[in-house]
Amino acid sequence: MPESYLNYIQLGLGIAAAVFIFIGIFLSVKKLNPEKYETIPMKTTVISVCLILVGLLLYTGMKTCTNLTGVTEEQYDVWAVYFASLGEVIKLFGFVALIPVIFRLFKPKSVKKQEEETEDVEGSEEN
User: Fold this and answer.
1) Is 58 in contact with 13 (CB distance < 8 Å)?
2) pTM exceeds 0.70, yes or no
3) Angle at which helices 42-70 and 78-93 pack, to 10 degrees?
4) What backbone torsions phi and psi does residue 115 show, to the nearest 5 degrees?
5) CA angle, 91 as apex, 58 and 80 as ends, to 5°?
6) Per-residue pLDDT band at 49 (split at 50, 70, 90)
7) What angle do CA 36, 118, 126 make, to 5 degrees?
8) What is the tens place of the pLDDT at every residue in 60-79?
9) Which H/E stretch holds residue 70?
10) 3-state SS assignment for residue 109
């Protein structure tokens, strides 16, 4: 495969990877609302993680195109280069897939605690 095609494939995969990762993180951040005191829905978390994983797989394809230009003389199989690139991407950027899960684990203050605090303040003002 000529290197010029690899450059176009690499560019397309890089842009698509950035879009998928951005959308996945944006969906989780959009559901964060400290004023409503609600956790992020499980469906949104799963969709966000899946979008980020698709983005990381696309980024792996981009890294594969980069690594293919360097190993042409040894003639490695494309799948061997892809799985080596996948290990590299997981090692460097695998934590990004956990960002929506971390957002979901953050428990906002409960409404009951805030109501008790306002009742205590109103009760002390009356005395």
Assistant:
1) yes
2) yes
3) 130
4) -65, -40
5) 60
6) very high
7) 160
8) 999 988 888 766 556 778 88
9) helix 42-70
10) coil
- The residue among 101, 13, 4, 118 whose CA lies nearest residue 62 is 13
According to DSSP, residue 98 is labeled: G
Short-list 88, 50, 52, 95, CA closest to 80: 88
Average pLDDT of the residues of the chain:
80
DSSP string, the chain: --HHHHHHHHHHHHHHHHHHHHHHHHHHHHH--TTTT-PPPHHHHHHHHHHHHHHHHHHHHHHHHHHHHHSTTTT--HHHHHHHHHHHHHHHHGGGGGHHHHHHH-PPPPHHHHHHHHHHHHHHHH-
